[in-house]
Design goal:
Elements: E1 3-8, H1 17-22, E2 32-40, E3 45-49, E4 58-63, E5 66-74, E6 82-88, E7 95-101, E8 108-116, E9 128-135, H2 144-155, E10 163-169, E11 173-175, E12 181-182, H3 185-196, H4 206-213, E13 222-229, H5 240-247, E14 253-259, H6 265-275, E15 278-282, H7 288-299, E16 304-312, E17 315-317, E18 323-327, E19 333-340, E20 343-353, E21 356-366, H8 376-393, H9 399-413, H10 427-433, H11 438-454, H12 491-500
Parallel strand pairs: 9-10, 9-13, 13-14, 14-15
Antiparallel strand pairs: 1-6, 2-5, 3-6, 4-5, 7-8, 8-19, 10-11, 10-12, 16-18, 16-20, 17-19, 20-21
Helix pairs in contact: 2-3, 2-7, 5-6, 8-9
Length: 512
């Protein structure tokens, strides 16, 4: 929808009691905290904003799609995340972008494929039932204001033909509204007031809260569940396979919002994947309302069903995420893979739309050499590991098999995973022990490419301009604020985000 988001996490997530008892943490910066972000975009940029620092952040327009955002604060506490939103100009086409990497003389290359569907998905008519399942456990302390404000604003934007229920949970689950509530100014005002009075409670029984939220549904009405939590379940049922089975019991889409750093995104992914929904992370410095509005846009329009991606003409293997149950309005597809050979290839995106089979296609060329984005090798490995872990959590893959594959990928690509660790030694110790320093060689290649990109004009990686895959524009968020994954035109930012957000398991530190 033309809105991108970059997060640099600074605030403690408050979910790791063991770490808090072990580590001594200095929250205060003695000197200056300086943040500088360079944003390159092949698509025209409409605006940039830094929530909470609108008057302090300096945004420079350096031309040619290049913006530099600088923030400097003295003597501040590391209590707030740095969140940057950028919005692209309206009128973006539906498009296909391919970002390749292939070292000179290499037998194989790596690529990132970004598909931004330009598909007219009709608005759904009729009322929708909304179930808000809200975490009010002790780990949500400090996040309750974000939860209450976001959900209260969302209630005020429901349609008169909609209905809603609110379920809260800590160690037990409770129905805050005893039955379905019709959307009226009076009901919205009443339950908005109730949201403001919620207080954090005890431990987290997420399963019981979700189970209660999925009861007493009306089979004749479309129902969507909005789950807002940090996902740190520690009471009752905690096995991800049980959550997977629960989420598949009803024909209901679950949309999850993870509050704060240190949230349990693997469990949330298990829940939302099983129901055909999606999840997103929310910082306390974020705009929860914008996130919920983006979710609302998805569930009030048709979706593409049973989407699959095929590439012929050049041998492609190890393609991540090639089969997707549903693609919602405004959703991008980001896939990684390897290719051998070079030259022309045909891309086909198959789906069902309004009950009919449709195919979107285009042609493009894989290069024999492309050296600007070596980080793609690590990103492919991370995406592959995430898919393995997701299948294990859902009970679809043997855990030992996944562990072996994860260990191999972690060592080969110098990634810290659940099966590999980081070794930090002095240069002398490396020499003395004779440990092969694969990460030093890989890092040198990546840094050289980063320096080259910084001195190179921004490049559009769109490959379907001559033969467009889609005949409609990409959907727009309407100029508001919200958050989705960084668009591929800002490839420098997308790759930086994967490396910088080390507080999340999505971007693990490099192994030595």
């Amino acid at each position: 929808t033309g809105v991108g988001r970059y997060l640099y996490p600074l605030e403690d997530g408050g979910t790791d009691e063991l770490a808090k008892s072990f580590w001594l943490r200095n929250e205060q910066v003695s000197g200056a905290l300086s943040i500088s972000v360079d944003l390159w975009s092949a698509w025209p940029l409409a605006d940039v904003r830094v929530p909470g620092f609108e008057n302090a952040a300096v945004v420079e327009d350096l031309g040619d799609g290049h913006r530099r955002i600088r923030l400097e604060r003295s003597g501040v506490a590391l209590a707030n995340d740095f969140v940057l939103y950028y919005r692209l100009a309206d009128g973006l086409p539906g498009r296909v972008e391919v970002i390749p990497y292939r070292a000179a003389g290499a037998d194989e290359g790596t690529f990132m494929l970004v598909i931004t569907p330009g598909v007219d998905l009709a608005a759904l008519t009729g009322g929708v039932d909304w179930v808000f399942v809200l975490d009010v456990s002790g780990s949500m302390a400090g996040k309750m204001g974000v939860l209450a404000d976001g959900v209260s604003d969302a209630l005020g934007r429901l349609r008169p033909e909609d209905r809603f229920r609110i379920v809260t949970f800590d160690s037990t689950a409770r129905a805050l509204t005893s039955d379905w509530v019709a959307v009226t100014p009076e009901s919205v005002a009443r339950w908005t007031q109730a949201m403001g009075q919620l207080q954090p409670g005890d431990s987290t029984n997420l399963y019981e809260g979700l189970d209660l939220g999925l009861r007493d549904l009306d089979a004749d009405r479309a129902t969507n569940v909005v789950l807002v939590t940090d996902g740190v379940t520690n009471t009752g049922i905690v096995d991800p396979r049980e959550f997977h089975a629960l989420s598949r019991k009803n024909d209901v889409r679950i949309f999850g919002f993870l509050l704060g750093n240190g949230a349990n995104w693997p469990l949330m992914r298990t829940i939302t994947d099983a129901s055909g929904g999606f999840y997103d992370s929310v910082s306390n410095a974020d705009d929860l309302l914008g996130k919920i509005l983006l979710a609302k846009s998805k569930v009030t329009h048709e979706a593409l069903h049973d989407v699959s991606v095929e590439i012929d003409g050049v041998r492609v293997r190890d393609l991540t995420g090639a089969v997707i149950p549903k693609v919602y309005r405004g959703q991008q597809l980001v896939l990684f893979g390897h290719y051998a050979g070079s030259g022309d290839a045909e891309l086909r995106v198959r789906a069902r739309k309004t009950g009919e089979d449709v195919v979107y296609r285009t042609r493009f060329a894989f290069p024999a050499e492309a050296t600007l984005h070596p980080e793609l090798e690590r990103l492919w490995a991370l995406a592959t590991i995430e898919e393995l872990e997701a299948r294990v959590r859902a009970g679809l893959l043997d855990g030992d098999e996944a562990k072996d594959a994860t260990r191999d990928l972690g060592v080969r690509h110098q990634l810290v995973t659940d099966e590999t660790a980081m070794v930090v030694l002095t240069d002398e110790s490396f020499d003395r022990t004779g440990i092969e320093r694969r990460n030093r060689a890989r890092t040198a290649i990546e840094r050289a490419a980063q320096a080259q990109r910084a001195s190179t004009p921004v490049t559009s990686y769109r490959v379907d301009a001559q033969q467009p895959a889609f005949d409609a524009p990409a959907p727009s968020f309407g100029g508001g604020s919200g958050a989705i994954d960084p668009v591929s035109g800002a490839i420098g930012l997308a790759l930086a985000a994967a490396a910088a957000a080390a507080a999340k398991r999505r971007a693990r530190k490099n192994a030595a």
